[in-house]
Structures are given as C-alpha cells and as structure tokens.
What does this fold into?
Amino acid sequence: MSGLSGKVALVTGAASGLGRATALRFHEEGATVFAADQRPFDDPPCTTVEMDVRRQEDWQRVLDMIVAQAGRIDVLVNAAGIALDGDTVATCTPDMWKDTMEVNLDGTFIGCKLASRVMAEAGGGSIINVASINGATGDGGIVAEGVAAYGASKAAVRMLTRSAARFLAEQNTGVRCNVISPGYFATPMVLDYLDAHEDGAGARARIEEAQPLGRLGRPEEFAGVALFLASDRASAVTGSEYVVDGGYLAR
It folds into this structure.
C-alpha cells in the first residue's frame, strides 16, 4: 500500500518548484491531489485549480469544491510563496512588503484557518507549511542583497505553525500542523535567478560552498519530507520544524 493511499491533498504553489514536486510525489503515493496555483500548469497528472492564496473567497471556493468532489481533505501543503528583488531594509518598498506578506504569510494563515475546520469535521488531517532557512537567519547575502520582507514572512510562518499546532491539538481536532524550512533548492525560481545574475556561476558556487552537502537540494528531496509529514507515520508529530538545507544552519 502506498504512503498516502486514499488520502485527499491540496497543494498550493503547485505549478512549479517545491510545490510541483510535492504534488507529483503525493500523486505517486496514491493520494487524490488538487494542485492549486495562479500560474499555468505543465502537463500535470492531477486535478488543477486556479487560486489566489491571498483571497479568502478563493480558499473557500476551492475547499468547497474539494469536499464536493472528494468528500473531505486530509492534507494541505502551503507551498505558495514569492521572493522579490531589492528586498533589503533600505530598498524594500511598502508595496513590496505588503505583497510578500500577503502571499507568504496571509495566504498560509487563511489556509490553516479554513482547512483545519474542514479537516476537524472529518476527524483530522495534516497541514504542512513551508517556511525557509531565511526565517531563521538574516544571511540572505550569499546571492542577493537581502531578505527583509521574505525573511520576516517566513519567520512568522514558523511561529504561526507552532501556535496553530498547539491550539488544534488542545482542541482535540485531530489536525496536525508542521513546517518545513528549505534551504537552497534547484527550483525554477532559484535557477532563473542564477541565470539572470551577473555572476551566476560564482553565485551558485557560493551557495554550494555554504551547504556542507556541497550542492543545491533537489525538489524531490523536499517532497520526501512532506510525504512523511502528510502520512500516518507522522501521527505523533505536530508543532515541529523540519529543516531541509543540506546542513546550512549547522555550520
């Protein structure tokens, strides 16, 4: 039997990168997967849905649709996120700050709030939030000038996860909530940035040197951790943070 056989999952930010890798792995493991994004999908094997995570009405529409089609939702992966250029405390504009927070933090909060209600009504589920090692360190200068708004949003996602996990457990909802903090992965966002960088090869070398494993992470490696947290093997795991960074924070 596959690890997620019979489960129903919603993955946001699923058109590319870590979200896409997670949606594909969940599908391979037997889950009924709903892949959500604002961007177009490239030949997805699962049901796709257009969704703006900043809008509560979009969340409600998608959750209602999933319940109508599949009867429930067992797993939510909040993988939608953005990182904007010029994100230093000196150059980040109020609009940049607002946009980053709305997608990375507000979208995750709304998802936790609404999906946990649906899960609780069916007896439980697993919410997996996606933060970043930049939510634990201000060291965004390896390849970029800074991560002021991005880092702040991801630090908030880490604390939101802990708060949600404790509340949902103490209310006996059966809903677990955990967070994965990835480091530098070979996703389209990272690779496109390196391609556009004036010293792309040098920037990549600095990233790889900063990670004790000596390489960029592979999206499927992230998906493997998400698979564990989504599965019944993690039935006693809630309020935890899983760092998947090639050893970066252990330096």
The longest strand covers residues 175-182. The domain at 8-189+218-243 is CATH 3.40.50.720 (Rossmann fold).
